[in-house]
Design brief:
This protein is mostly helical. The protein has 2 helices and no strands. About 35% of the residues lie in helices and about 0% in strands.
Amino acid sequence: MEYYAVDDVGRVLNHEEIEGQIIGGVLQGVSQVMMEAVKFDERGNPMCSSVADCGMLTAVEGPRREPGAR
């Protein structure tokens, strides 16, 4: 899967920090769309106690930057 993320961050003081924020935002958006689901029992009670139980991507499944890409 290939994707592009574009943002106007203004004056960059720390490139790595900005890159991490953009990657984190993309990861959260993809996670919400593709994985999160809240399941309920027959009485309408949620069957998960935290966001981690509902399905959320971690850094392991996160996007990888291509070498040399900026």
